[in-house]
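Lay summary

Proteins are chains of building blocks that fold into shapes. Our project writes down both the chain and a compact code for its shape. Here are two examples, one after the other.
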Amino acid sequence: MEEATSGIRFQQGAWERRIEVDRPDLPVKGLIELMDNNPIVCADEMSVPGSASTLALIAVGPLLRAGAPLEPPSIAFSFEDSGEDVAAWLATESWTGEAHCVYEPVDAGTVLACTGMAVVRTPDSPEEVRSLYEESFGRSFFVWERPGPTLPWDEVEGSPYAFYSVEVSASDEPTCLVAVRVIADRNGKCGAAQLVHALNLMAGFEESMGIAE
């Protein structure tokens, strides 16, 4: 196995395989937790999203999958990024519109953060919205919910995990705002750990093999 310029290249017998970063043009691509494993196992090459798109998909991917947003989502990032491909990655969850992205750099070491916001029809209970995230990430090795007003930045630093929290605004109107905060390490879920996770799935290994906790 060797690291390619923007990913990993490895060989299984005569089968040469490749994992790229931020290549939404490839047929097999996406946030691993939101993908069907079968195409990954069979692919010659696949792509995982870059840092901004990884956080964006965790933040609003479950909402997009459910067709919940009534207008383009807004996503605020704590770091500089071109944002050119965020909408293309959101399209992996059937979103065909744009996304409003804002970049407000914060010095937080290797920890990256985003807040995704979307207007949805007011649910009977906030748990209806949270259940969309539980369905997507409830069995995930590396994406965990951390309810509460603050996320544990110190715990995520240097780890392979992403932590998120979901807030559904109280509303007597037909629509309400869902805000999802996400944090991850640029070398963890937003970086090398995600590549190794993809390699493990492609090669049929345990998902967490070789990923330091």
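And here is the second example, written the same way.
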Amino acid sequence: MFKVKKLVSLKGIERLRKKTNSKFPILHTKTSAYVRFEYAVRTAIFVACKYEHKLDQFDTLNIRFNMDGTLIGNKHIVAISINCIEGGSQCQAAKNLIPLGLFEVQKENTELLRQSLPSEFINDIKSVKYISIGEKNISIRIRLGGDLMNAVYVFGLAGFSSNHQCIFCTQHKDDLHVTDDTAYDKTVTERKGKNKQTITIHVGHSSCHDLTKKARSLTEQTLSLTKNTNELGYKCEPLFGDLFDYQDYCADTLHMKLRVFDVILKDMLAYASRTGK
């Protein structure tokens, strides 16, 4: 005789789901839900250990902070997840990303995001400096991930309509193509009215990390925002304060590839739309 297994009722499944979810330290607000950052980091490291068995030998572990907006029904949601970079590319797969939080926003811009992200959430992230693995305390460095528009919002930049649209440097948009071989002297006009003056400056190639070659920095941003006229593409204070430096940004290779394809497609469409010989 075969024993017939009893089917679990929907109510029983609901009870089991609530019991399981109660074990996760999820915090709720009216428009958001998130977990403690330390809990998420420990989970990310646990996942990374599957692919890199010597994480305890690192002095510093890099945590990639992935942030992106999406539409769920008629709600605009910003989803944040993390992964441990030392675990390799496998940890960047969707199934291995660790959810950190979901936040409802009206639309994506720096000020609305600033209103939507609870201060407790941001302070909780800033508080995690070290994680213990076994008997060793390992330093945690948080790296910002996501597409370029996300970087614009997080760093408080003016965006791609600005004359200084690059998120890595303050080079003028007309000179972003300049290299060491194409460097030149440029005549510019400063100030207005009676104080107007014309000067000649040398335009060379820019850098994303060398401050002497126009790399962006939080210090420069703070000084620029104190001026009435901001000419370097800084719009407001960074969303997370000094949590992320400009050198902490990890370029999203997927979006970089998509932008390359956009340029190719644009040229193909332009060529196909030509008329005549």
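What can we say about the second shape? The first strand starts at residue 26 and ends at 28.
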